[in-house]
Write a structure and sequence with these properties.
heterodimer; A: 337 residues; Immunoglobulin-like; six-stranded antiparallel sheet; five-stranded mixed sheet; 48% strand; disordered N terminus; B: 156 residues; mainly beta; three-stranded antiparallel sheet
Amino acid sequence: MDTANPMFASAFAWTRRLSFLILCCVFSAPAGAVGTAVGTVIENTAVVEYDLAGTPLSIQSNTTTLAVAERINVTVTLQSPQTPVAPGDTSRALLFTVTNTGNGTETFQLAIDSLIAGDDFDPDPAIPAIYFDTDGSGDFNSGDQPYTPGSNDPDLLADESINVFLVNDIPTGLANGLTGRSELTATSATGIGTPGTVFAGQGDGGVNAVIGSTGGEAEDTGEYLVSDVQVSVVKSQLVNDPFGGNEPVPGATLTYSIVVTVNSPGVAVASTVRDAIPTFTSYVPNSITLDSVAISDLVDTDEGEFDTSGVPSVVVRLGDLTQAAGARTIEFQVVID
Amino acid sequence: MKVFMSVILIAFASVATAQGHLDVRTTVHKQEVFVNEAGESETRLVAAEVVVPGESVIYTITFRNVSGEPADNVVITNPIAEDLMYVDGSAFGPGMEILFSVDGGVTFATAGELTVVEDEEVREARAGDFTHVRWVMQNDLPVGAQGTARFAAILE
């Protein structure tokens, strides 16, 4: 947009608003979520309107120009919750997201550190130890490409992210409840320094690059929890026939009881019980309870449902279980056909 | 075509006259922290040519009446570039009323009088909504006199 048009501005000085509307247009690139794009030029021109001997007049100032330099910023964010592992496990992954929070394109180098103070054991980095979540699944698998420093350092556009796994082996002989940490660091290839440090001419398109608030690097730490948990599941049944007895005859109601207990230290994470309805029986609608509290048959926000999408089954999500929290009891009923 | 030509001619005439009345300059600075000889941290204004997101800049508009007559109804208007956000309370101008626009410069009012519609609800305008700053001189600008208007903005 051409802002320099004093002829128009003055010719129409009597329509002050119009003159100044023409002048107010300045060039700017669209601002992204992480700040004004590198290379954007910000111009500024003031307009002064005045009367002289009763004649309205207008004049514009010179135009100042500001160039937007590249700000280097990066964040690393752990995505995995505390990850339960067993002693001797191999290739256990922690997921992180590396985000370019600067305003230009930047290359980042990645590094793993599993010798972190403050934990109970040191995970043993696999070889290689850093992978990209190439298939975008969020789970570490054979489709994910390893990171080779200096060879496939991620190039990220402003506001772009990439998901990265740190992969460690877990030493043997560890007791339940011990934790081990592993840290991912992403470092700007342009450089690091205190915020405000200038790398002359090293930004996008040859503008200056300036270190932002994160100092040009960022890190986050994930944690493994040794959790070799032993869980017992005991199922029992109670028969009530239509005649007041306990015979398993057609029309008799079977009340199943499933008791889930953790018998060791550690946490059984995101535990779910799925139990198929026996053949030649029919599920009694709305008969599921968890610790004597009713759970609806519908797929909704409560802990379970009667799932008819495949083999008709009762599904109850128990969440994280520990020995200290005690047993959980699921009950439901069927009728013999 | 004739009409167009005459507009151009008038334009040239107006420019020549107008530029003879007021001398208007705009400068842009940023604040720099430095350590003085006594070892204390101080700030000073340095000319700004390059900025990074999150950095503040200060625009200063100076105007001098270089004509032979006093100028009255002097109004200075400065747009706030799209990538800049006005710093709340930063506009300054001795002897001037300060107004803002939230509609691209169509209407102006004091900061407290402006509202914007967001999510179909009317709310008081905030610094980030302002599109223009305007300074309205309360008195004439005498011959030879100079005025200053200033505001700060932060690069988004």
